[in-house]
Specification:
By secondary structure, the protein is mainly β. The protein has three helices and 13 strands.
Amino acid sequence: MQYIKMPLVALTACLATAVSARAGDPLDLVLFDAPDIVSGFLDVSYDSITELFDADGFALEFDDDGEGLPHGINDGTFDLAATIGVDGTLLGGSLIIGGTIPALGFNSGTLLTGNVIDFGFEPVSGNLIEFLIDLTGGDAAGLYGVDPVGLILAQSGFDGSFAANFDNLIGGLSGTGNGLSDTAPVIPLPGTGLLALVGAGLVGLFRRRVNG
């Protein structure tokens, strides 16, 4: 996974000409460097009969300010569940990221919770899947500020289509997935009513996560 730094002026120009994502279109999310929860060892699977998508694994690190080393997450868990039609249409979903970070006073055992409100993917290259999350709670939610929050999932085993089952497991065995994800604030998309935040609240450089 690569990180491409983009200046604010260029990002603002891109937003001005962007169009709303349709099913199957990449969202091309641009995320803040921090706050950012990095999760890994994710088992990813999709059942085209039940239309259930699931990514389960471990929340590993939390970068709260973009300075110094990130905080390790104790007993970190990651659970993203969604219902996605075989035509690639999102029908609903939820996110729960668990764990504690005593140094930050995060001791409840829940770091972030939220609902999946949009997602995108690249039908040709596959693998990379992007989600927009409407946060509903968690110890770290206050640091994320204004929605939406972006979640970028890589090494998912996704082949670009929801017409058939897929997973990233070795021999179908649970616990063998190698999925990776970042969960961080995202630049608002046109039509969300939050585009004005670009000029007021987004400064410096941002990174765009792309499949590498």
